[in-house]
Amino acid sequence: MNTKAGISLKGMVITIIKFAVVIGAMYYLISSGKLSLSDLKLDPAKWYYVGIAATCLVIVVLCSFIRYHILIKTLDIGLPLSDVLRIGFIGAFFNTFMLGSLGGDMIKLAYILKETGKKSESVASVMLDRVIGLTGLISLGCIAMLISWNKVVATPGLHNVALMGFATFGLAGACSATGFVAMTKGRKAGLLLWLCITAAMAVIYFRYFSASELALQPGAEAHALLFGRTLAILAVIAIASLACIGVMPSCLPGRRLEGIFLRRIPFGAKLINFIQKLLVFKDHFLPFVACFLISAFLQGLGLVGMFFLSKALVQDTPPSLEHIFFAGPPAFIANVVPVPGGGLGVGEVALEELLRLCRDNSGHIITGGAALFLSYRFLNISIGLIGLPFYLRGKKEIKEAEAEYMADINNEEK
Fold it and tell me: Are 210 and 306 found together in one domain?
């Protein structure tokens, strides 16, 4: 009884914090004048842009489900594409409206476990699907920043955003690449790949972070700091990816590192279990890369949809496609914060502030980012409603799958 009360109190506190984040973000936007009802007006003569944006987002949603089907098919999870589409729309519906005790990803996982009984493969597929999606988004943001590198260098406020993006993408990409190659082809092959990655990072670094060029620009001190911090990040990436060559093969079941995690490291059992679930893909590197490329393409298509939606909004200084590709990825990443409404208010603040760092051809600040992101959210909600009839039709089945999943989690904890 006390346990249930404790769980209820904990859930209540978490819910209050989530709503506080939403209310605080929306209050900031409205009180600061960065969001008003007038910003949400659509130009009647440009409604067709809304149709183009909606088409882009529907394609993104459908292809993301197909991407996930590729993942589970690689792992021999026998789930038809029709079922993947159905449960995918239900998951999107849950993620949009934050229904139930589980999110959309967990609902998808519970359903797949109930249908297939393949726990490790199912958990790995859901985890990797989300990781691939985020990595594709971050990589797209990094590419956009490199394309607009002069703007990034000239705006000290963007330096931290760029460094965080490069660090995240570099660590995820380099570590996974060297680690997986070391597990499948041997440590020598992993070391050869590491040398290639390190050489590529050196070329990019001296191409975009030349100290002599930075010293000639205004704000040389900030640029020199960017130069040094970037060098430190690349060094961390090189060291971490080199360590993965030795560590990741030893994490396989029955290897030495597994025993160390189980016996000597606090929470080591859960950590090694998490790592081993991801390592299910060690023999399927090419499908993994294909899914990553699909993800990057879909993230780009989503940004194109946002651009067309911006053309339908009545704005004094509308953003260009370059501005959207520059500010969109970090705003989407900020929107991942698990608050009610799928990050309501958080993404709006992020896009507003990032676009305000940009200028049009006349030197005017780009405004209307909050209204654009909110309109984009409404469009996504409309698409998420496609999952409502699927949910209503299979509500009983989903509740059963959720109950079985929670019971399995409780048994593991005991």
Answer: no
